Amino acid sequence: MSSGSPLIRGDKASRREEILAAAAELFADRGFHGVGIDDIGAAVGISGPALYRHFRSKDAMLGEMLTSISRYLLDGALGHAGHDGPPDEVLAGLVRFHVDFALTQPALITVQERDLANLTEDDRRQVRALQRRYVEVWVDALRAAVPHLDDTRARSTAHAVFGLMNSTPHSRHLPDPELAELLAELALGALHAAR
User: Is the dihedral of CA 18, 116, 124, 134 positive or negative?
Assistant: First the structure.
């Protein structure tokens, strides 16, 4: 997967990334079980069986898709958390990063929410491990910005704020720049309300 975006399309996308991006849109629209290999092939202009040159199965596509976005989020969070600066700025950087992801990848959020249970056991374990590490980056940043917060409350706060930011597939009532600003303000307000 590209380090610049979890799933990209167009000239810069590899064929695998293009297939995963199309599969994400289809899975988000119809659900994992509502999409066949021929549907994914048609979306990228090849036959369904030709997809087996890139992925061994539809399950493997879902596994790579959700593992890759989990890695992307963790790597991005670690990058933002590693910046020197006041804790409030680090926290704001994490919020902006996640809001940008939520606005640009709503299909992936939908697939993550709805189809995580369809992963193989190994892929599900890997995604969950990456997600736990992502949450812990937020817990550390939140505790640095709100020093009296304990781990349990910080973790609960982070999960609540993820829900707010990940609402984008269901709440696109404003233009993206305005929605990004609103989500960031709400998320930061919620994070700091945990004091």
Answer: positive
Domain spanning 58-193: CATH superfamily: Tetracycline Repressor, domain 2 (1.10.357.10)
Name the phi and psi angles at 19, rounded to 5. Answer: -65, -45
Instruction: Say how many C-beta atoms besides its own lie within 10 A of residue 15's C-beta.
Output: 12
- Determine how many CB atoms are found less than 10 A away from the CB of residue 195: 11
> How would DSSP label each residue in 88-150?
HHHHHHHHHHHHHHHHH-HHHHHHHHHHGGGS-HHHHHHHHHHHHHHHHHHHHHHHHHSTT--
| Secondary structure class of 60 (helix, strand, coil) | helix
Amino acid at 100: D
Q: What pLDDT digit, counting tens, does each position of 79-128 carry?
A: 999 888 999 999 999 999 999 999 999 999 999 999 999 999 999 999 99
Residue 103 identity: L
Conformational region of residue 46, where left means phi above 0, alpha means psi within -120 to 50, and beta covers everything else: beta
The token duo for 106 is 């709503």
